[in-house]
Each structure stands twice: as C-alpha cells, then as structure tokens.
Amino acid sequence: MTETPDPKHGERFRTWMASGTGDPTPAIPAATVVLLRDTADGIETLMLRRNSKIAFGGMWVFPGGRVEEADGTDDEVAIARRAAVREAEEECGLVVGVDDLVAVSHWTPPPVTPKRFSTWFFVARAPEGAVTIDDGEIREHMWVAPHEALAQRDQGVIELAPPTWVTLHDLGAATHTADALARARALEPLVYVTQIAKTVDGLAALWVGDHAYETGEDADGPGPRHRLVMTETAWRYERTTPEGPAG
Description:
This protein is of the alpha+beta class and 247 residues long. The chain has two domains: 9-192, Nucleoside Triphosphate Pyrophosphohydrolase; 194-240, no CATH class. It is 22% helix and 30% strand. The protein has helices at 9-18, 76-92, 146-154, 162-171, 177-185, and strands spanning 28-39, 42-50, 60-61, 64-66, 102-108, 117-125, 138-144, 190-193, 195-199, 202-206, 226-230, 235-239. Strands 1, 2, 3, 4, 5, 6, 7 and 8 form an eight-stranded mixed β-sheet that branches. Strands 9-10-11-12 form a four-stranded antiparallel β-sheet, with no helix packed on it. Helix 3 (146-154) crosses helix 4 (162-171). It starts with 8 loop residues before the first helix and ends in an 8-residue tail after the last strand. The relative contact order is 0.17.
C-alpha cells in the first residue's frame, strides 16, 4: 500500500456527508462481498481503494457495486448475490461462487448522504487466484487484518465509510475464516438504517437501540447507545443495548 497519512481524511468525509441537502434521493440497490483469508497472524480481508472521482472516491471499500439489470429480477437477496459475484470479478479478478456468499447485513444510508446505495453485505472465503485491478475505478488493493484497517483509519492513512468500519469491527471477533463464516451463518442478517446526529465529539451514525435514533435530539444525553461516533481522530463504536439493529 502506498498511501501516506493525510490529516484531511476526516475533514473530507465530514464535508461529503454535509453536502447532501434537500429531499433524500431513492437509494440505489447494491451489493458488496467481504473476502477473507487466513494467515499465520490471523484473518485478513481484501480491500480496494476507489478512484477519487467516483462515488465514495478515495475510500477503501470491499469489492462491490450497484445492482444491474443483468443480475436478474427475482428475489432481492438472490439478485444481490449475483451482483456481488459479478462485481468481485470485475473489480479484483476473483471468481466467487454464488452459494459461497453468506449474508451478514443490509445498510441504508442516512437521507443526508449525497449519493445513496442500499447495500447487502456478504462474507465469503477468498478464492484462489491473483487480485487484478483496472487502475481505473479501483486504484489500489491490500489484504489487511480488520484491526489494522481500523488503526490505519485512525492514523489518517485510509478513509472508511461507517458500514465498512462496523463490518471490520465485527470481524475482529473471529479468529479465522471458518469462525467468521460460522458466526455469519448462525445469525439473521442485521439491518442498519442509519441516521446522523451531532454530538460534542463530532458526527455520530445512529442505529435502532440508540436513545436518540428516532429524533436525533439530545444525542449527548443519558440513555442507551448504539452508534459510531466519528471524532476528529479515533472513531468509537458504542453499544449499551442488547437489541440488534433493525429498522
């Protein structure tokens, strides 16, 4: 990986979030796949850096993209699976089997997001083969341990969107790929419909279970937390309620 720390990473993300005004646009169906492999030091996932001139430009993401007509018109999850497989091959040259994908979550961004993608997240074991990128939409790639990716974000080396951050955070509980897949299969996919609120520490992405989720008001007040606080430096996940995300 060739990027160096950039203190403006957090500023650019906050500016991008604040640039959405007016009525929310319909969310575009999309899908992404979290590809995992095992190393002597633990689990790693494949991440790609997007061209700065396209949606989520400059951010590090998992392989994925919008659903296309060729992906079908039947069941929503089945369509998303095919989209994830197609995007993985297009963006990084890896062929993943549709049946190898395990759905882990679905994300709908907040209304203030300038370009909204309603995205299914899947997890799968990375297939054999070399990663190849086009140096167009995708500029770089790396295999990275989830905790290391989060550390690099806090150091200003890479940029992440909240769904990517939370997914990496959750992967930190898995000791190896089989463990991560077993955890995913044991749970129903989590549904995140994000709202944004201002706190004394910075913007926070809120989900069901947070006391300020419905209104966005008094976010710093007492009450249950289920949020990602996006401070000037380190981001912080807070969850004090046992309820899973939904709605």
